[in-house]
Write a structure and sequence with these properties.
Blueprint (H helix, E strand, L loop, with lengths): L2 H12 L7 H13 L5 H4 L7 H15 L4 H5 L1 E4 L2 E4 L9 H13 L6 E5 L5 H9 L4 E6 L2 H10 L11 E5 L11 E6 L14 H4 L4 H4 L7 H13 E10 L5 H9 L4 E8 L5 E8 L3
Parallel strand pairs: 3-4, 3-6, 4-5, 6-7
Antiparallel strand pairs: 1-2, 7-9, 8-9
Helix pairs in contact: 1-2, 2-4, 6-7
């Protein structure tokens, strides 16, 4: 079967409510299984695929027909320059989360000292910082042992000479590194209120881990708990960078400003112009 014929077959199989335009989805699915760029199926329509490859693709199509997100169905997701293994134990990395890596690298002039990623999930932020930055140590914390198993496996995605600087910790927020002094605390914490679950897309609500999505106190509980802990572990001038819900941007900024140990508190925008990140500096002690 040629790639073009396979695109037609998958598009027909995937026509269903809630599935993106089926032909584009089919091309994305084939490219993801073959670990090729998105344009590859369009540029290789006449290429023939062997039976083994077709069987692998059929398995992914079957998972998608069950409603499974494409990244889970394929078993991996792109994040910056990395390709990470993902499954239902971890959130699917989002493009906006890539920007928090840019914020940290820019603020720290490429990285220095120690950075800790709180709620690491698949390890996306921590591994990108280890691969792209010059940090001496990259610590990654998650309260889910299952998520950490995925993150540890993803260590293989970064260059071998960078892997020794990554340290994994199971625990709640910053408790596992309470005895260390950090130069950066970065986090994409859960920030959705449980009351908002019904309004979420089914691809998120029914498949992604609720532990990584929802927080009490109208979505603010973990952000409010993290701020004083970050102030306690950051050294003078240390950076706090959090991805937040645009709907709670003011609340998140206020939570940081309420701690007198922080200064230079700012909201930063994502690529759509929505407030998506809070950054701040630890006061000189």
């Amino acid at each position: 079967m040629t790639v073009g014929e396979l695109v037609d077959r998958i598009a027909e199989a995937l026509v269903a409510p809630g599935v993106p335009p089926a032909r584009a989805e089919a091309r994305d699915l084939i490219a993801a299984v073959l670990d090729q760029p998105r344009f590859w199926p369009s540029a290789h329509r006449e290429d023939r695929l062997d039976a083994e490859t077709l069987a692998r693709i059929d398995q992914v199509v079957a998972r998608r027909r069950e409603g499974m997100p494409l990244q889970y169905a394929v078993g991996r997701a792109p994040f910056r320059h990395l390709t990470l293994a993902v499954d239902r134990r971890v959130l699917i990395p989002r493009p906006e989360t890539e920007l928090v890596v840019d914020l940290v690298l820019a603020a720290q002039q490429g990285g220095r000292g120690r950075v800790v990623d709180v709620g690491t999930g698949s390890g996306a932020i921590a591994l990108a910082l280890a691969a792209e930055g010059a940090f001496d140590e990259v610590h990654a914390i998650d309260r889910s042992a299952e998520a950490l198993a995925v993150a540890r496996a993803n260590l293989a995605a970064i260059p071998a000479d960078r892997r020794g600087r990554v340290h994994w910790h199971e625990g709640d927020l910053l408790a596992p590194v309470a005895g260390l002094t950090m130069d950066v605390v970065v986090s994409n914490p859960p920030y959705i209120s449980p009351a908002e679950a019904a309004a979420l897309p089914a691809l998120v609500r029914d498949w992604e881990p609720h532990l990584a999505l929802f927080a009490a106190d109208d979505g603010m509980a973990l952000i409010r708990a993290l701020v004083p802990q970050a102030a306690a572990v950051l050294g003078p001038g240390g950076l706090l960078a959090m991805e937040i819900d645009a709907r709670r941007a003011t609340l998140a900024r206020d939570a940081v400003e309420a701690d007198p140990r922080f200064t230079a508190v700012e909201l930063r925008m994502d690529l759509t112009g929505r407030p998506r990140f809070v950054v701040a500096r630890r006061q000189e002690r």
